[in-house]
Amino acid sequence: MFLRVEHTTHYRYDAPVGYALQQLRLTPKDRPGQQRIHDWTIEVEGGEKQLHYVDHHGNGVDLIAVHGGDAELVIRCHGAVELLTTDGVIGAHRGAMPLWTFLRPTPLTRAGRGVRALTAGLGRDFANDIERAHALSAAILDRLAYRIGVTDAETTAEQALGGEGGVCQDHAHIFIAAMRHLGHPARYVSGYLSMDDRTHQDATHAWAEAHFDHIGWIGFDVSNGHSPDERYIRVATGLDYRDAAPVRGMRYGAAQENLVVQLQVQQ
């Protein structure tokens, strides 16, 4: 399957910005036999590309500087990606980060009382660890309904579990925290999802991957209750959202921002 993406991120500031620096992780990963970029372009208005590099998770990163006097920043990504069905199986671990790194908790994915109770409630009657991981995914979605506006980028897995709902980022963090608690390396994935019933998407998507002996990495989309298929474009991976956020940065000055995202993903 070929998917075409048109993604615009538009920042408007109520006063000129003194200085800002943004990290963009918006270039999909190339992985032979699974995902191949046919063309991909990132265009910037109101800022300047300073540097492109590959980080320690194998993510393509662009640094964008916004110099004094600008009151808008527009980031446009567009391109086509070819995807093959793998039933969520990514396979053997690759890259500079050792596998044990993905057992390490982070502030967003630390397993506290809520996560430990969730895993204990799964029981032990499973044919294998993969079956248990799918049961965990279902338990998370049953416990935390998908609900926009009640969490934010700094909400931890434990805080989300104690709340009244969450989004794909929260589901991924809880799953990662629980799988690490169970002894499996786990990581966060950001990317694009082509929904069957629409072309215009509300936002980028997030899911999780866990590592199993003799198989490797397998993806779990808790929010949609299945493993990723050919409708999913993997863009960035990391220990949690902070490592894989599509756009993340800092700015100087007291200007307040308004963010508008427009996203189309279609065959």
UniProtKB/TrEMBL annotation:
InterPro entries tied to this protein = Bac_transglu_N, Papain-like_cys_pep_sf, Transglutaminase-like
- Tell me the ranges covered by the Transglutaminase-like domain, including all copies: 160-224
Task: State the protein's name.
Answer: Transglutaminase-like enzyme, putative cysteine protease
One biological process GO term for this chain? proteolysis
| Taxonomic lineage | Bacteria, Pseudomonadati, Pseudomonadota, Alphaproteobacteria, Sphingomonadales
Q: Which Pfam families match?
A: Bact_transglu_N, Transglut_core
The record ties this protein, via PANTHER family, to: BLR5614 PROTEIN-RELATED, SLL1049 PROTEIN
Keywords, comma-separated and alphabetical? Hydrolase, Protease
Superkingdom, natural source: Bacteria
